[in-house]
Amino acid sequence: MECVFRGTCVGMAPENDHAESVRALRQLRRMRTFYAGGAVLWAASALVAGWDDPGSRQMWVSVVLLAVFTALLSMTYVCLWRQQSARWGEPVHHAAPRRMAWRRHADA
């Protein structure tokens, strides 16, 4: 570990860093579902509005909101992809490591 500035040490991540990254990934997955639902909703709305009255204000608002939700969805996919590729090389620790129990033999 190396102390850089006024006793600030670098080299070790805080203990809660893993928990925060797991929460962030869970949040991103939830938002991905929400953005996908919004994109489907606005695509359907744009389709119906375009079918009834092509070129209407309602159709263009639906198209703009579809573009916004699609952009948010794509940014969420990129963030999740980066997180997975960054964590690809790390070992996965789901539980405590299994160690062989030491067997002590009595001397004869």
Automatic annotation (TrEMBL):
Source species, domain of life: Bacteria
Organism: Streptomyces venetus
Name of the protein described by the UniProt record: DUF3040 domain-containing protein
Top-level taxonomy: Bacteria, Bacillati, Actinomycetota, Actinomycetes, Kitasatosporales
Keyword annotations: Membrane, Transmembrane, Transmembrane helix
Record-annotated membrane-spanning stretches: 33-51, 57-80
